[in-house]
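Reopening this ticket.

The earlier resolution said the output was attached, but the attachment link was broken on my side. Pasting everything inline this time so it's all in one place.
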Amino acid sequence: MVESLGSIGSLVSSPWIYALVATSVLLDIFLPVLPSGVLVIAAATAAAAGSGAAAAAGTGAAAAGRVPQDVPDILVLILCAATASVVGDLAVYRLAWRGGPRLDRAIARSRRLTTAQERLGGALARGGGTLVVLARFAPAGRSVVSLLAGTAHRRIREFLPWSALAGLAWALYSVALGYFGSQWLGATWLATGVSLAALFGAGAVAAYLMRRQPRATEAS
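Inline output:
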């Protein structure tokens, strides 16, 4: 297990992990089965382990005021994940915008998608993009919201700020789970498992809150 974590740590210490995280987060809006959240948490867990090892072994560099070169940059990891999330949202949004009558008819045949489209359009028009943020945590919610925002031809200034907030919130949450989980429980598979359970738990809560959204709208 220690050797496995060490191999992950060596990957995280290279620039390729950032490209891998960005690619995974970008593509999982098209293929929601891709475990981008799992990858972000694993990278953050290994980053915490790497920074701890560097702190223990690099006291001489710290005393000289230098940061060891093999310490992964958590801020870069957050930036990569958040940026890739927004870029993926915008890609689906633009594709849905240009989808044409065939896509409109496909959505019209689904009562659930039609209802969701109306709710999303109303929420964005009122400046309340909570639904967009919640959808980023819910399974496949990001894909549905970006698709519906595009097919409804919502203005980009109504959608983009909430997409950016959702991407940043998700990236911060995922990285924090991996990083602090490793700090508190150690660089073990238990820490990764607990962090993943917290990520999936947040997704379940987000999906529940999204289902309750129509009732709140009707009550108001």
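Reporter confirms the inline version is readable. The chain is about 80% helix and 0% strand. The first helix runs from residue 2 to 12.
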